[in-house]
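Notes on consecutive records. When two proteins share a document, each keeps its own sequence and its own token line. Never mix them. Below: protein one.
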Amino acid sequence: MEPVERHAHAPDARFDGGDLDCGGGLLLLIRRHIDPLNAGGLLEILSTDSTVEVELPAWCRLTGNALVSWTRDGTRRSFLISKGPYVERAPAPVESGVEERAPVAVTVPESLPSPASAPEIPPLSVMGVGSWPRPRWMLQAMHDHLEGRLGEADFHTTADDAVRLCLDAQARAGVDVVTDGEQRRDSYASFAGGRLDNCQLIPLDDLAAMVDHAEAFERELRALDVPAAEVRHPVAYGRLGRSRPLAVHELDFARAVAERPVKVALPGPYLLTRTMWLDCLTDRPYETREELAGDVVRVLREELHHLLAADAAIVQLDEPVLTEVVFGSAHRTRSFMCGALSERLEAGPELDFAVELLNAATAGLPEERLGLHVCRGNWTRDESLALAGDYRPLLDALGRVDAGVLFLELCTERAGEAEVLRAIPDRKRIGAGVVNPKVDAVEPVEDIRRRIARAVDLFGRERVLLTPDCGFATFADNPVASARVAEAKLRAMVDARDAFRTG
């Protein structure tokens, strides 16, 4: 498209991107300004970087947006793009003035609170892993909120209703420990990027215009069960900070409503570091992955202190990508694993790095209230695409992590022979997966009872807690089970546990 003398239409929003290129932060600003617009809304982008003339039209084609027109005056360029396909409108004068970019202020927290007391979790307690299917109206509210069309207060009012439904379902099933179902989160991990300072959630397909090898990147995204445009990825554009909680507000509401102890899940520090360290980006706010990891550990440590001070019964750190480290195909250089896009590295050093980060985040906190969840990916219902292999390569790392509960996927055949887990130190409790959330059929109570008996034989009655293999809706737009099936599976777990106790 050739430049025009002036745009024929007035924009609905505009900003000045200065000399940023598409790989150096401009796309983050575009996403921030275009998301709140309605379909067909017009965004004007000012730029002095010459490469944007080529990269911005390519981004528009990739994401389904439309370049309406552009102008050039010396080194100053103005681009008018439509959110989605362009809808013809009457010409109008362009307003003057542009919105200046302003850095996000990072606040430094005061001294961290100490853990408060919490109810003891008895052996053979039944609980979910974390996520729960969202109602359709909750999904709509989530997208409206992410794209700036629904304010914070209205979003949380809607989410409160979804959490009540989730808690009611768990109560009907008879579980001993509840979660809020992660109803406020777009996914189990990426949500953190929307709440941390200097971090932004952008659709995965946006990243294709920001990486070195776009074609290979796009091929990887086609493996997703849900369109890449609907999966958002956290990208840091400055130093991370925690000026608002990640999940304490979720815990506060759940505790006010639920009559049972509450478990909260957080993405682990290794997962967040792997997710946010995009070595393929042409411009990054951190020089090294270790530098980023230091800030990830700091913000998670702050959150852990506040959650335990607010009476979280268990805080579970999710690190499913650990299985990708040991089971991922050796010939692949990059992978998509539960939302973590990153370069594949050697297993030994990576496991050491993960243990170091986990123990730094949890140092000095009560191990009995800290959990680590490890699975093989919950981003597709196709079991043949998920990773397989027993826990043997992870045993050393699992033994060294300062978490008192290990929530492990044990029901699916992909988990391999559970006998190898006898090597886990006796001081650790085992959250044993005894139902498969990816299978619609509710497992017979007798089958679940036998799995419980096997777990007790392996670990001892006092060490066993009972869970599904993974969450029921790791990604909000791509649940692996319905709410009806999820409740029925938890009810079957409770019935099987009771049968085991009386048998």
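Protein two starts on the next line and is unrelated to protein one.
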Amino acid sequence: MNAHAAARAVLKEWDVAAKLAGAARLWMEWQGGSLDCGEIGAPSDIPGRPPRPVLLSPREMPRRQLNGRENHAALIHALAHIEFNAINLALDAVQRFPGLPPAFYGDWLQVAAEEAYHYTLLRDHLRAAGRDYGDFPAHDGLWEMACKTAHDPLARMALVPRLMEARGLDVTPDIQRKLKGFGDAPGAAILDIILRDEIGHVAAGDRWFRHLCVMRGLHPEAAFRDLLAAPGVPRPRPPFNMAARLAAGFSEDELAALNA
């Protein structure tokens, strides 16, 4: 079976349960050797999504403090939405970018399966709080960055895993502290699992970003700075989770430059 076409079909799936099952199935099939990297075909630019949540621009999203049951549920919902988008982002990398080593596609199929697992943990936790995915509005910043980088896998690896997802490494410890302060130790424990796996996801992006830089004769850290300087690209903001970023492939010199 063609891995690119199979990933495209799951990407386009709008039913959440079918998308979750599809992401897990594709990773199992890749491990079992039943997927191959043949012709990539024309990519799909529109991911499948359920009718809810309502998507707003980041500026329209309400600002919330973790000071009550409703805001606690809204925070868990926001985290679940990030993981749902991350499933689509990983599948999009498989179905979109031609001519890369098979290991590239295997890495992102694994990421898609792990993001589906993260989403399931958070949705179950949200349901335990009496709410469900779709009950709150959400923003589309991750997928907007996917659209901006659809032309180039090097830009995608730099600006999605190394920028947007690396930001998750930075903010997760503070979110965990807030959840524990609210009395939600189980939610903080879910983020332990997610943080562990997300270090690996950022590391995959870093690995393939550096691979593409070598192929193009670029210096990785200079290329990353140039991409960050493009219009509409947010700058990384300290404080950084230094240990997590170093584990994900950032160098000490690069982190010092970002801090400066």
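For the record: Residues 185-216 form the longest helix (32 residues).
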